[in-house]
Structure formats: structure tokens, C-alpha cells
């Protein structure tokens, strides 16, 4: 099975965080992530898997995590 053919597996927390990113202007703060049960580790895993990118924002209190096209595809694949 090639890398592209592997099924995407996300935990419920990762799915909630990605879903929150789609609802809140395609991005969430750490506070938003915590409200849906995600931790910094959850966000870093999503970044490592290229489902989200971290945008450090000096003018905004805290960082912003944005969903990527790969994250949208993974979320769509996981939807029943």
C-alpha cells in the first residue's frame, strides 16, 4: 500500500480540533482548542501531520492554528 493509499486515522480530539478550525474562520487559538478538548500536543500532532499550520501572530494574543487542504481532506474522509 502506497503512502497516498493509506487511510487517514484521526482521534476524536484531533477531529474536533480540525472541525473547530473550519467553523472559526479556518483557524483556532489555543483557547479555542482547549474548549473542544484539544491540547498543545494535539495541535502539534496536527502540524506534524501537515493537517494544520501554526501561525505565530505578534499582534494577536497567542498563536493561531490554521487548517490546511490536507486537513480538510482528512476531515472529509473521516466523516460518516
CATH level-1 class: Mainly Alpha
Q: Helical residue percent?
A: 40-55%
The CATH topology label is Arc Repressor Mutant, subunit A
- Give the low-pLDDT segments: none
Helix/strand order, N-terminal first: HEHHEEH
- In DSSP terms, counting alpha (H) and pi (I) runs of 4 or more, how many helices? 4
CATH architecture: Orthogonal Bundle
Beta-strand percent range: 5-15%
Mean pLDDT across residues: 84
Largest sheet: 3 strands, antiparallel
Report on the structure:
46% of the residues lie in helices and 12% in strands. With 80 residues, the protein is α+β, with helices and mostly antiparallel strands. It has a 3-stranded antiparallel β-sheet. Helix 1 (12-23) packs across helix 4.
Helix and strand arrangement:
Layout: H1 12-23, E1 27-28, H2 30-35, H3 40-48, E2 52-55, E3 64-67, H4 69-78
Antiparallel strand pairs: 1-3, 2-3
Quick take:
By secondary structure, the protein is α+β, with helices and mostly antiparallel strands. It has one domain (10-78): Winged helix-like DNA-binding domain superfamily/Winged helix DNA-binding domain (Arc Repressor Mutant, subunit A), CATH 1.10.10. The protein has four helices and three strands.
Which terms summarize this structure?
single chain; about 80 residues; alpha+beta; Arc Repressor Mutant, subunit A; 3-stranded antiparallel β-sheet; 4 helices; 3 strands
Amino acid at each position: 500500500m502506497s503512502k497516498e493509499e493509506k487511510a487517514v486515522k484521526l482521534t476524536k480530539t484531533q477531529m474536533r480540533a480540525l472541525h473547530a478550525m473550519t467553523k472559526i474562520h479556518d483557524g483556532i487559538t489555543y483557547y479555542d482548542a482547549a474548549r473542544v478538548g484539544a491540547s498543545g500536543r494535539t495541535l502539534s500532532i496536527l502540524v506534524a501531520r501537515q493537517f494544520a499550520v501554526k501561525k505565530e501572530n505578534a499582534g494577536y494574543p497567542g498563536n493561531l492554528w490554521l487548517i490546511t487542504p490536507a486537513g480538510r481532506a482528512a476531515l472529509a474522509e473521516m466523516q460518516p
